[in-house]
Amino acid sequence: MKDQVRIVLIGDDGAGKTSLIATLLADSFQEVHKMDQQLRTADVVCLCYAADSENVAERITHWLRHIRHTRQECRAPQVPVILVGNKIDLRGEDLTNPKLQEDMEPIMEEFKEVETCIECSAKSFLNVHEVFYFAQRAVLYPTAVLYDAGSRSLREECVAALKRIFKLCDKDRDGILSDDELNAFQARCFGASLDPAELQGVKDVVRGNVENGLTEKGLTLTGFLFLHHLFIQKGRLETTWTVLRQFGYDDNLRVDVASLCHSLPAPPPSHVYELSQAGVAFFSSLHRAFDKGAGLALDDLDDLFSTAAPGLPALWTSGELDPATATQLNAAHISLRGWLALWSYTTVHDHKTTLEYLAWLGFESDPQLALALKPRREASALLCLVVGSPALTDAFLGDFLGKRDHEPSHATSTSITTTTRSPSSRLVALGSLPDISGTEKYVAMRKYGLEETEALRTRLHEASLVIVLYDSSDSRSLSNTAHAGAELNSLCRNRDTPILHLALHHTATLMLQQDGATVPDLSENGIHLEAFASYSTLLIKAHQLARREQEWQWLPTWPQAALLGAVAVLVGGILLYRHFKGSKQA
Question: Which segments cross the bilayer (predicted)?
């Protein structure tokens, strides 16, 4: 809504334009004949005419065409016009004009930009304030955006906006606004609920004027649209505009999400935004509302995101986080954990996207309250960069996704998963796990080749852990790891990013180095390799280190030692890094 309104008065000499302004400002009458035309930048035009003139219709038509031509020349949208009949004091004692509506109706029919017609007298101080009230109102609550006067119907954009609002207010998703839902809507938009008599009055109006507008359960979408059509026809545009603005619409019926993003400062490099408790509660409630019992299917996602003009977030459909691929890997349904994992990663990766969708999906408070600023290493979502040959990284991530048959089972390790669809789409796994306090954490894994140092460099500031894989049965793999690992060690050390060098055997059933294998000494390259015969031994080692490294709290308590192998690798990776880093410094 505009906080300033630019009103331009035009018309024939002697119509009383300047007198109107002077009377408004000074409450006195002055004869001033000079007129300034500022049509190009006007928010509203008051077209003045002398009420005692004999050729009123001709002169009004002349000026309306001039306004149209001037606005078209500068490619400006048509501006609302208020017709102002001045000098009615010259009529004598009877100031009324019973033929006003009859005289002006043809003009208003031809020129849809004319909002209203009012007669006044600057000399007698009659209706002067009302003239400028209607002018401001035409700007603050524009008609043309909502209503097509020619067809006497709501514009498509207005209908779409009201449908979205209806859907957001229909909390139980039954296609009806119950009395409770209607009162919640009323309280949100106007600060007060309807009393029983007022509520019954609304229902009576709908029942008496439109079919299928009301059921025994409450107000239908048809009835909701009818009410707003009625408000506009009766000149109560402020009612509909109040509703639209309460749900984030600007004067052009666009949801103003850009201002949300600019109002929240960028986080410092050491911090990230993540979902607050309010944010988690909101997205959890959305999942419960649209989950038919087995998680969110693709048609559930379509329904859920129908109130968001962009559809699914671009991050999800760019090949990085693709729910369509994810659901194919998880029985075509997204669990609550998977849903929260998606939003947790999205928020840490691009908090502006989350802010936008909080607005689109109907978060009722300030969207910023759904986010919290946290140190990167304390965030609920972690990004792990997995570096190695395609065979090793595919095997490692396949294990994380639970695609391999070995103990322990990984069936529950990932609530939602994604696969790479292009070279630039590297996020191939997203899962959840509890930390030592039982708080849910989310892990995203990206894979990189050993030669992609520059690509890694651009992501290190986001990473919580780097895992470098090498094939213990391949001497070339070891050589490549030694060369690339030394450079990665230096990069990670400069950014204080944990790094784990893990010896694997890509043909082994367990995907970890087999018992009895020799761990090469690469300490001169700053690389410390650790070999594990199974996930259990990796867990034991990580548990032992956790007792000495209290700074990291990612290791579950020992009764949870049967946790997933992928979780053990991640937990062990962070703890081993701390152990080796401390040993080297000692």
Answer: 558-577
